[in-house]
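Regression test case RT-17, inverse folding.

Input:
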């Protein structure tokens, strides 16, 4: 199921390209920095490159480190088990930081269901 390339107007292409490059950079940082996600940034990059650069779009899908995860998402909407585990751990740490710094119970109580919904959605995706 190949993604159809969407061609924006002449003025929008540089914006999509900038978004794709920025997202790729942030996703790359996520491979070495704890709590910085990789996959969501790369999904945004693929989406932006589909609108701006066939070459960079193909490069991400053929990348030895990023490609298999992106292909699994594109073809099966599947997430690797390791990515699920790291994401759920990051959600838990994020909530703990909010709870420790909020100065009350209201903000952590409001944040918890949002993070739980995100985690629940993620773990119900097929495993790559």
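Golden output:
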């Amino acid at each position: 199921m190949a993604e159809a390339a969407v061609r924006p107007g002449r003025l929008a292409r540089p914006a999509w390209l900038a978004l794709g490059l920025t997202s790729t950079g942030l996703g790359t940082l996520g491979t070495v920095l704890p709590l910085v996600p990789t996959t969501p940034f790369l999904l945004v990059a693929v989406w932006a490159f589909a609108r701006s650069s066939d070459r960079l779009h193909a490069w991400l899908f053929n990348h030895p480190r990023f490609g298999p995860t992106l292909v699994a998402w594109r073809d099966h909407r599947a997430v690797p088990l390791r990515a699920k585990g790291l994401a759920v751990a990051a959600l838990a740490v994020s909530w703990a930081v909010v709870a420790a710094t909020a100065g009350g119970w209201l903000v952590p109580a409001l944040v918890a269901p949002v993070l739980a919904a995100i985690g629940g959605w993620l773990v119900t995706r097929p495993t790559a």
